[in-house]
Amino acid sequence: MKGIIFILLEKVVTEAHGEDTWDALLEKSGASGAYSSLGSYPDEELARIVTAASALTGMAEADILRWFGRKAMPLLRDKYGAFFDRHNATIPFILTLNEIIHPEVRKVYPGAEAPDFSFSQGGPGELEMVYRSRKRMCALAEGLVLGAADVFKEGAAIDHLRCMHRGDEACVLACRFVPKGA
Q: Would strands 126-132 and 116-121 be described as parallel, antiparallel, or unpaired?
């Protein structure tokens, strides 16, 4: 897992709950807490932090990942605005993941293991996403999609039709987006 993910998690947690909460998560999880944005860290370290957050809050781990993704997306928008600025809605932005965003991520963060997505568009405001990753962090992907909708000021709903956590070979997310106020 690239260090940027840990740095984003620390920022999201401390902004929402304070530095003491972040310190408590590190202590409970046994995580180092010393992260470089270009560094690579074991996936298990993130899993331990999420498990610790679940134990401290009573929230399901998937809900924690979803919350983190949603809160991290505006921070990513602030840091990497050029990826967002060329779009005026969530779907066109999401459709750039495989061809533009993830290749750029791999340039900036060598060794980054980005998930693979495939897409099919339904009616207006509808997008079906197929998510594949050995990390099986589909809840984080959901949160990032919800966060992207927030950035583009759209309402979003996601139905998780199939999931690797339930034995499926890939996750299938049926996403619907509506401009807020529409």
A: antiparallel
In angstroms and rounded to an integer, the radius of gyration of the C-alpha atoms of the chain is 16
Under the phi-then-psi rule, with left for phi > 0, alpha for psi from -120 to 50, and beta for the rest, what region is 181?
left
| Cα distance between residue 165 and residue 70, in whole Å | 21
List Cα–Cα distances, 8 to 11, 63, 77, 110, in angstroms.
5, 17, 12, 18
Which of 164, 12, 177 minimizes the C-alpha distance to 94? 177
CA distances from 114 to 15, 27, 170 (A): 26, 28, 15
Q: What are phi and psi of 112, to 5 degrees?
A: -65, 135
Residues 6+ apart with CB under 8 A from 181: none
Residuewise pLDDT in 10s, the chain (182 residues): 888 889 999 999 999 999 999 999 999 999 989 998 878 888 899 999 999 999 999 999 999 999 999 999 999 999 888 889 999 999 999 998 767 555 666 666 566 677 888 999 989 999 999 999 999 999 999 999 999 999 999 999 999 999 999 999 999 999 999 987 65
CA distances from 131 to 16, 87, 140 (A): 28, 22, 11
Cα gap 42→22, rounded to integer Å = 19
